[in-house]
Amino acid sequence: MPVVLYHGGAAANSLKSLLPLFEKKVDFKSHLMALVNFEQHEPWFTKINPRGQVPVLVHDQYVLDESTLINEYVDDTFPGLPLKPSDAYGRHQMRVWTKFVDEYFCPALSFLGWHAMIKNAVAHLSEAEFEAKVARIPLKEQQDKWRITAKQGYTKEQLDEWRRQVRVSIARLEQQLGQTTWLAGDTYSLADIAVFSMALLLPTRWQDDVNTRTTPHFMAWHARVSSRPAVKNALAMPNPVAGTHEAAAKAWKT
Amino acid sequence: MPVVLYHGGAAANSLKSLLPLFEKKVDFKSHLMALVNFEQHEPWFTKINPRGQVPVLVHDQYVLDESTLINEYVDDTFPGLPLKPSDAYGRHQMRVWTKFVDEYFCPALSFLGWHAMIKNAVAHLSEAEFEAKVARIPLKEQQDKWRITAKQGYTKEQLDEWRRQVRVSIARLEQQLGQTTWLAGDTYSLADIAVFSMALLLPTRWQDDVNTRTTPHFMAWHARVSSRPAVKNALAMPNPVAGTHEAAAKAWKT
User: Fold this and answer.
1) Which fold has domain B88-253?
2) Is B96–A65 a contact, with Cβ atoms under 8 angstroms apart?
3) What letter does residue B182 receive in the DSSP assignment?
4) For the whole model, what pTM was predicted?
5) Residue limits of CATH 1.20.1050.10 in chain A
6) What is the pLDDT of residues A228-240, one digit of tens each?
C-alpha cells in the first residue's frame, strides 16, 4: 500500500504532516514541491487536489488534504506510537490545540510571514507572468493573499493585530506548559506536533517575547520536542524556502 | 454522571451541540442562556468558561468548549447511534466538512447575521450600558465583532465577500449531495449535523439560491435531516433569538 506525501518542505503545515509519518515510521514517498514557484497550482497537481493546496497524503485509492485531518487519519491508520491521548477528554484537549493552531496561531504567523517574504519571492516575475500564475490558483482567498502580499502588503493595523495574536498565543502556550509536560497532558500528541510546526522559529524570530527568562516552560518544551529522533529526521529534510525564510528573518518583525 | 449543556438555543453552534445529545439520547440538563443580553460574559459563566463562549458541555469534572470538538467527545463517550463513520477515511471526510463549517461557511453566515441583527438587538442599551457589557467580553475578537456590528456595520466589500462564500458553500454542498446520501458517505454523521445547524434557514433566507430547482439534492437532504426525531426534538427547544432572527430575515440579504 503505497503512501505519498506531497508537501512544501519541513515548515508550517507541511512539517505538521511530515512529523507523524516519521514518529510512526511509515514507509512513505516524499514528493517535495516548489511552493514559491506555484507548483501546487499546476494542472498535474490540481488533478490530485483540486484546491491546489499542500500537504496532500495519497494512501492507496485515497487522497487526503488538510494537514490537521491528515494527521488524525495517519494516527488512526498506521501502527507505531499513538499520537492521540487514550481518553476522550484528552483527545478533546488535543483538538482544542490543533483547532487553535488552524484558526488563530497559524493564520497570524502566516499573514506576517507572507507579508515579509512574498514580495521578494516573486520579484523575478514580470507583471504578466505573475498574473498568469495567480489566475491558475483555484481558491479566491489564496489569489487575494498572493496579490496583496506581492503588491502593497497588509496595513499597519492588520500587522499589529496579527502580532498581538502571536503574543496572545505565546502566553497561552507558556501557561499550559507550566502545568503539563505536553500540551494535551502527559503524552506527546498531535497537539504538540501542530504547535511545534508553527512555533519552530519563535525562539529565533521572536527573541524579545520567547526566551528562557520570559517563557521558560515553552523553551523547555521546544527543546524536548526538538530532541525527538523523528523531529530531527523531519527537520533534516530539504526545505525549499529556507533561503527565503532566512532573508526575511529581519523583516519579520518590522 | 451529570451532563449539562450551556447553550444559546436551537441555532448555529448551540444547535450543533444539542443534536448529538438528542441523537444519542443522553440524559442532560439544558441550560439556556440569553446571548443577546451578554449572559455568557457574566462572571458566574466566565468562571466555567473563561473564554465566555457557548456552547459548553460539563460532564462530571470536565468542562469542554468548541461545539465541533464537544461533538467528537460526545460521540466518543456516550452509547447510542454512532455519529462518526467507522473507517478512518470516512472520519477524515467527515472532519473536512466540520472544518469547512468552522472556518468558512459558519463565519460567512455569522458575520452576515450579526451585521443584520445586532444593531437592533442592542438598540435599547445606552452607549454607557453597551460599553460596560462589551468591556466584560474576554476575547478581543468578540469585542470587535459586537462594537462593529452595533455601530457602523461591515463594509459593502466585506458583505459581498461573505455572500460569495455562502454561495460557494451552497454549490459545494449541492455537488456532494448529488453523489452521496449523507455528506461523509453512507451514514448520517457529525458532518451532516455541523452543516445542518448552519444551513437550517437557507431555504427560507436564501430562496433565490437554495430551492428545489437550483439545489434539489441539498433540499432533499435538508428534508431528510429535518425529519429525524432527534432533530425535531432539538428544534422544539426554546430559541431565544427567534424573534430577532425573524425581524432580521428581510434585512439578511440586503
Assistant:
1) Glutathione S-transferase Yfyf (Class Pi); Chain A, domain 2 (1.20.1050)
2) yes
3) B
4) 0.93
5) 88-253
6) 999 999 999 876 5
